[in-house]
Design a protein that fits this description.
The complex is a heterodimer of chains A (about 300) and B (about 290). By secondary structure, chain A is of the alpha+beta class. Helices cover about 35% and strands about 25% of the residues of chain A. Chain A contains eight helices and twelve strands. Chain A has helices spanning about 20-25, 75-90, 100-110, 140-155, 170-180, 215-220, 255-260, 270-295, and strands spanning about 5-10, 40-45, 55, 60-70, 115-130, 135, 160, 185-195, 205, 225-235, 235-240, 245-250. In chain A, a hairpin with a 2-residue loop joins strand 3 (about 55) and strand 4 (about 60-70). In chain A, helix 2 crosses helix 3 (about 100-110). Chain B is an alpha/beta fold and about 290 residues long. Chain B has two domains: about 45-120, no CATH class; about 130-290, Metalloproteases ("zincins"), catalytic domain (Zincin-like, 2-Layer Sandwich). Chain B is built from seven helices and eleven strands. In chain B, strand 10 (about 215) and strand 11 form a beta hairpin. The longest helix of chain B is centred in the middle third of the chain and has 28 residues, at about 165-195. Chain B starts with about 25 loop residues before the first helix and ends with a helix. The chains are: A alpha+beta (about 300), B alpha/beta (about 290). At the A-B interface, helix 4, strand 7, helix 5 and helix 6 of A face strand 7 and helix 4 of B.
């Protein structure tokens, strides 16, 4: 269950979450209806290995927004529509108008929806109530916002704001490649993206290469700036940080996973609990570093 | 949406409504069959060109001449982007030029005022101060491996750039710096005003707008003009409050202004400030970021 991406939001750490389980229960996932395109709601984070809609450990909460999306490709609808239109034209000797076309399309969708495949989707979120941070396991801002919206729907009020850096992330990332001291515990990885500051300027993507050297220096001297940078925290976590402050390619390294392997694993639920504990601990350390380096605003 | 009341709002140019929309479908089909080209006549389009002009003080400038189907009369305007002459379809080019000459003195006065506001563009080692939060902050230049503008540990504003970094890189660093400063201000003020709002802004972006100071999209995206960072902090704070109040009322009704008044009682002073200084702020930012 380790998160692979983190899109972060801040919320007031004073938020009352004491009645969370019952609030989530009112917004639990309902199966998508025969004439619905999709449905969203909370599902147990442990999947089939637990019933609770949230899992808490100290100040960390694990919520999961599940969903069901109907798969109804536009091409299938259009193809059937064309056939119907052609049949009407042949029968009546005239092309059906726009209104008829729309009515036929609606009828087709109504006819096809109950037979469409249902694709299950799942998005996990970690809430650190002490830091006042929500980390959604996605790199898509749209998906992350939909998860936050679901939490807001369940709680009634959830004043979560996107991360607000009080310093230019691009300048910080560029400075780290250029030789500025990195925060304690942080070291450069082997991947970065450099961009020319002009609109539609050159983009250099570097992977599996040491980020200290003449090649990089030349790009920086030409004025290029880092928009993505791979970093490693204490040999425990590796990730790629973008100028949008989205954490991508998050990976727990051996230094962290070793701790997990030494724990007893009686059942799946216990293992998931242990993994979440590890994840929440590493996230807390990672966020503390990012918060200081990028001067992230608090929500209170 | 807050435009400060300083500039006349300008909407996007839209093409006119296709003709024949009001006829029923049978009549339309008949017309289409009878029409030799079987296509609707193209609506007149906006035509733009630039014409040279000599001001009363001898300065040579270029004026954007726009023949706009929506224009009802000849209009001459001047903003941080320069002079613009709008002509309705029926007006002749000669009438437009005559109009320009009749208003040469007004144009000269506008140009002189704008030149005073604009100052000089960003120049390596030459720009000694940058406008920020209503003040001119002294700037120090130094060589560096990467282009970066920020306050150092001692609170001095330092622009570090490699010798080979071009103007675009310097301007981008300046833009990033202003945006970061704007975000710092917003981050400081926002928690104070969030309580009592039905929802939070979905995201906050800084843009360079020509007439507006801020806007709130229906999806909750809050856009702020980057030149607010150059304004005095209370004015910037007022625009933020103004846009946040649109989360309560998506209009400028009395109920909306009551919410603004409750949260920011001195809003009238700030609006007057924008009326006085607005154009100068936008012009200054445009000059700095355009080189």
């Amino acid at each position: 269950m380790f998160f692979r991406n983190l899109t972060l939001f801040r919320f007031p750490s004073s938020l009352d979450l004491s009645d969370l389980e019952s609030q989530l229960g009112e917004c639990a996932l309902k199966p998508v209806g025969p004439l619905e395109l999709s449905s969203r709601g909370f599902v147990p984070p442990f999947g089939q290995h637990g019933d609770a809609l949230s899992h808490g450990l100290h100040d960390a909460l694990w919520l999961t927004v599940g969903g069901e999306d109907k798969l109804l490709p536009g091409a299938v609808v259009n193809d059937l529509l064309q056939k119907k239109l052609a049949a009407i034209e042949e029968k009546e000797g005239r092309k059906p108008g726009g209104r008829t076309r729309k009515r036929l399309k609606d009828e087709l969708i109504t006819e096809l929806l109950p037979r469409a495949f249902v694709r299950p989707v799942r998005s996990d979120a970690l809430l650190d109530t002490t830091l006042g941070v929500v980390a959604v396991d996605t790199s898509s801002r749209k998906n992350a916002e939909s998860v936050v919206s679901e939490i807001r729907r369940a709680l009634g009020s959830f004043p979560a704001l996107p991360l607000n850096a009080e310093t230019a992330p691009r300048a910080i990332l560029t400075g780290w490649i250029a030789g500025d001291p990195l925060p304690d515990g942080l070291s450069l990885g082997d991947e970065c993206e450099l961009r020319d500051p002009t609109d539609s300027g050159a983009v250099v993507k570097i992977q599996r290469m040491e980020l200290v050297g003449d090649e990089i220096a030349k790009h920086l001297e030409a004025g290029k700036q880092a928009t993505r940078l791979a970093l490693v925290l204490d040999d425990h976590v590796s990730f790629v940080l973008g100028e949008d402050l989205v954490v991508r390619k998050l990976k727990l390294l051996d230094g962290a996973v070793d701790q997990l392997e030494s724990t007893d694993r009686d059942d799946v639920a216990a293992e998931l609990d242990a993994r979440f504990a590890l994840m929440a601990g590493e996230f807390k350390r990672l966020f503390a570093v990012l918060e200081k380096a990028f001067k992230l605003s608090k929500a209170t | 949406m807050f435009d400060g009341g300083a500039f006349a709002p300008r909407g996007a140019v839209r093409l006119s409504r296709p003709e024949g929309r009001s006829y029923n479908s049978g009549m339309r089909s008949l017309f289409r069959l009878l029409s030799p080209s079987r296509t609707a006549p193209k609506p007149p389009v906006v035509q733009r060109d630039r014409i040279p002009f000599v001001l009363a003080d001898g300065h040579h400038i270029e004026i954007l001449r726009v023949r706009d189907p929506r224009a009802r009369r000849i209009k001459l305007s001047f903003d941080e982007r320069g002079a613009r002459l709008s002509l309705p379809l029926r007006a002749s080019l000669v009438a437009g030029e005559r109009f320009l000459h009749e208003h040469r003195d007004w144009l000269t006065a506008q140009f002189t005022a704008q030149t005073e506001h604009a100052g000089n563009g960003l120049q390596r080692d030459a720009t000694a101060a940058l406008p920020l939060r209503g003040e001119a902050v002294p700037l120090h230049w130094q060589g560096s491996r990467a282009t970066r503008l920020d306050f150092d540990a001692g609170g001095t504003l330092v622009f570090g750039a490699p010798a080979s970094a071009g103007n675009a890189a310097l301007q981008r660093a300046l833009r990033d710096f202003y945006e970061a400063q704007g975000r710092a201000d917003v981050g400081r003020w926002l928690p104070k005003y969030i309580a009592g709002l039905p929802r939070t802004p979905r995201r906050i972006v800084f843009k360079r707008t020509s007439t507006l100071w801020g806007s709130l999209a229906p999806d909750g995206s809050l856009a702020l003009d980057l030149s607010l960072v150059l304004a005095r902090p209370s004015a910037f704070e007022y625009v933020l409050v103004h846009e946040l109040c649109h989360l309560l009322h998506a209009d400028h009704s009395r109920r909306f202004w009551r919410e603004v008044e409750r949260r920011f009682p001195d809003w009238r002073d700030e609006r007057s400030y924008f009326n006085r200084e607005g154009r100068a702020l936008k012009t200054r930012l445009r000059t700095l970021l355009a080189g």
